[in-house]
Write a structure and sequence with these properties.
The protein is mainly beta and about 750 residues long. It has a 26-stranded antiparallel β-barrel. The chain has a four-stranded mixed sheet with strand order 6-7-13-14, with no helix packed on it. The protein has a three-stranded mixed sheet with strand order 10-38-37, with helices on one face. A hairpin with a 2-residue loop joins strand 11 and strand 12. The relative contact order is 0.10.
């Protein structure tokens, strides 16, 4: 599905803008002028939000592109506008006069997640989602009555919630990112100095889907809720440089501020009307509180140099020092009003906390040194060294207890050691130190150029499972050129990572030992001047080595054989074949085919005491086939131009599930829940299957030197099938209540016309 989204984003509104910006970048003969493009579209009504997920396709008159420029007597002004007054609009430009320059950019990116999503909740205040207490009491009674029978099926919840879901509130899930930046410069040109002041402001707003809203972890179902987005990022910067004959010196400072106006999300529990203390499947909180990213600040200062010597020898370096801080007030342990702490205080009060806030402080220091030289014409050398130190100055303490052991259903004391890296009941600030060395040599034999690279990275961590890690990598590359007939590029890389430390479940993905191999080959053949044939192949294989087996109860307990958990391996292969044929200066045609295959294997297990339960192996794979063709014909030179572009992409996903022990898994029909002890596992064949077809035909007519008319047809079809979201609002196993916004399959027919005027 991710590949489909990438292709769709590339199409975007480029159908209306295509060629406009490129033409605007050509140096015009006139000292002032511009260009404006008017567009008119007729679009078949599309209910799915997927069609405009990251773009806006206007249904009336639009201005997809406009430009105004002026160049005279050392003065330059150039302004560009894209998709004027649309949700994906952008405005950018620059102004230079003498030694003073100004660049500015403003852009918007929409995110249309889905239309007509359904929710049982109402937003009584920003970020607060509620339900009627009487309805929750009815649902609680029915659910609690059903619990002892251990037969909570999809049908049961479908019947119980049917009337509520049928009258659920309807809302569109829309997000919008607005980003503006400016840069004021002074100097440059023949001046030895250069100064710059920069500013950036980004605002995000709207709603997205939050998964995992199960506030009563041992009671199904879970549910999906709208999450409010409302945050601001600001960045202030200053740069200065002084140039001399043999190099330069430079310095910079940046200040970054993050403000989150949606710090929390509060949700009523549909199956618990009042707060209750319990450690069983019954009882629990009447509400859930989710805390989002807190406000924080970061400052970074840097200074560096560049020195130039004979034989194209360059030596450069810089030092950067940073300070990150965060001191947002803590929220209470829980909002369950009847839970008491180990000292008898209400756990839902801020006064019961051991500390009022984190007072987080992190210092960073980064040093870079770079060297390059060409002692003889055919030989190139380069080397670099980088060290990055992250020192966490945040206070360290042990949390005496909290509600996480029985999520919001009761209090749990803890006697965990102060220096243990395991678990969540310690406030142990992580430190890291990274050192990276790279050395490379390139030699040119004429038609053949070869390169060898060695790099080594050492990481030291504090309060992480893997206290030490080391990456050692080798890379070899070659480029072969034989006149205009053939060219070849090949590259191979092998990286090995080792780790040291003690772990219960296995090192986290960023720490784990692994072997990574990458290889790529690209060949271009030109048997005749009008024909190009190309072939590309890429391969990547990551194998996680020395994964520890699952232990029974603690880090010191014996391992259970053949039970490594987590990500075990990941593979990626891609092949591309492309043909381009240009028989004359009035015609050009091309076609391509790409095949991609992604595979990964995960394994997990649960323990009951020392007994292993539910050891499951998940082997996922995606196969992607992409076909494309394009053509351009000059029907009447400099008057009529016909162009055609087509693409079809199909992603076939599969989740191969193998169960070594009895447990809870999907049935082939995905309509009932298999409970522990009944066993069985079934492959999910329709796992993230997608198809996208796009066809565009365009006819251009140059009315006059300054006027052009374009007419075209755009067809786009999208299909999506996924076992997790098909059919009922309820997903088996977890019995999940989806919001079900309309972001699924669609078929779009668009007829458009453009009028371009150059002035």
């Amino acid at each position: 599905m991710k590949k489909i989204l990438r292709v769709t984003a590339l199409i975007a509104m480029g159908l209306l803008v295509a060629g406009s910006y490129a033409a605007a970048q050509e140096a015009p003969a006139k000292t002032s002028g511009g260009k404006i493009v008017f567009g008119a579209l007729s679009v078949k009504d599309i209910s799915s939000a997927k069609f405009e997920e990251y773009r806006e396709v206007p249904r009336d008159i639009s201005i997809p592109y406009a430009n105004v420029f002026s160049r005279k007597d050392g003065f330059l002004f150039d302004f560009h506008a894209f998709n004027v007054r649309q949700s994906d609009q952008r405005y950018t430009g620059w102004l230079n006069s003498g030694r003073v320059g100004l660049f500015f950019d403003y852009n918007q990116t929409p995110h249309n997640i889905g239309n007509n999503g359904r929710t049982m909740f109402s937003e009584s205040a920003p970020g607060v989602w509620t339900m009627s207490t009487s309805l929750r009491q009815v649902l609680q009674t029915a659910n609690d009555t059903r619990l002892p029978t251990a037969t909570r099926t999809v049908d049961f919840y479908d019947n119980l919630l049917g009337p509520t879901l049928a009258s659920a509130n309807v809302m569109d899930l829309l997000g919008l990112r607005k980003r503006g930046s400016a840069e004021l410069t002074y100097g440059g040109g023949d001046a030895p100095y250069a100064l710059a002041v920069t500013y950036m402001r980004q605002v995000r707003s709207g709603y997205r889907r939050l998964s995992g809203g199960n506030v009563r972890s041992q009671v199904n179902p879970s549910y999906e809720v709208p999450e409010r987005s409302d945050d601001v990022v600001q960045d202030f910067g200053f740069r200065a440089a002084y140039n001399f004959t043999r190099g330069n010196v430079h310095a910079a400072f940046n200040r970054n501020l993050y403000d989150n106006n949606a710090e929390t999300l509060t949700i009523d529990n549909p199956f618990q009307a009042v707060d209750v203390v319990s450690t069983s499947t019954l009882g629990g909180p009447s509400r859930a509180l989710f805390v989002n990213a807190p406000d924080n600040e970061a400052s970074t200062g840097s200074a560096g140099f560049l020195l130039k010597f004979a034989k194209q020898t360059r030596l450069s370096g810089d030092v950067a020092m940073g300070r990150w801080t965060q001191n947002a007030a803590f929220y209470p342990y829980t909002i369950n009003s009847v839970i008491l702490t180990g000292t008898g205080q209400p756990a839902n009060l801020v006064s019961s906390l051991q500390k009022p806030s984190l007072n987080g402080k992190i210092n960073t220091t980064t040093v870079n040194l770079n060297f390059s030289s060409r002692p003889v014409k055919a030989l190139g050398l380069r080397a670099s060294y980088r060290t990055h130190d992250l020192t966490n100055k945040t206070d360290r303490w042990v949390i005496s207890g909290d509600t996480s052991g029985n999520p919001d259903r009761g209090w749990a004391n803890t006697t965990i050691a102060a220096d243990t890296p395991y678990g969540h009941l310690t406030a142990n600030p992580y430190d890291t130190n990274t050192k990276r060395l790279l050395a490379a040599a390139t030699y040119d034999f004429g038609d053949l150029t070869v390169e060898g690279v060695f790099h080594n990275t050492k990481i030291t961590r504090t309060y992480r499972e893997a206290t030490k890690g080391e990456d050692t990598g080798y890379q070899a590359a070659a480029i072969y050129r034989s006149s205009d007939l053939v060219s070849l590029r090949a590259k191979y890389e092998d990286i090995s990572r080792t780790a040291e430390g003690e772990t219960f479940y296995g090192f986290q993905a960023d720490e784990a030992e692994r072997d990574t191999k990458r290889a790529s080959v690209a060949v271009i053949l030109s048997p005749i001047s009008t024909l190009d044939l190309s072939f590309d192949y890429g391969k990547r294989h990551v194998e996680f080595t020395n994964r520890p087996n699952r232990r029974a109860t603690s880090a010191g307990a014996p391992e259970i054989p053949d039970t490594p958990v987590g990500l075990l391996d990941a593979k990626y292969d891609t092949y591309t074949v492309e043909v381009d044929f240009t028989p004359n200066d009035r015609a050009a045609v091309g076609a391509y085919y790409t095949y991609e295959k992604d595979r990964s294997t995960n394994q997990w297990a649960t323990l009951t005491g020392t007994a292993l339960n539910n050891l499951v192996n998940y082997a996922g794979s995606d196969k992607t086939d992409t076909y494309g063709a394009n053509a351009v014909f000059q029907i009447v030179p400099e008057k009529w131009t016909l162009s055609f572009n087509a693409m079809h992409q199909k992603v076939d996903g599969l989740m191969d599930i193998t169960a070594r022990e009895a447990g809870s898994f999907y049935t082939p029909g995905r309509t009932t829940l298999i409970l522990p002890g009944q066993g069985g596992a079934a492959d999910i064949v329709d796992y993230d299957d997608t198809e996208l077809t796009t066809v565009v035909a365009n006819l251009d007519y140059n009315v006059a030197t300054d006027w052009k008319i374009s007419m075209g047809y755009w067809f786009e079809k999208y299909d999506f099938r996924d076992a997790f979201t098909q059919g009922s609002l309820l997903m088996p196993q977890s019995v999940y209540i989806f919001m079900k916004p309309d972001n699924g399959p669609y078929k779009a027919h668009v007829v458009y016309a453009k009028l371009s005027y150059v002035f």
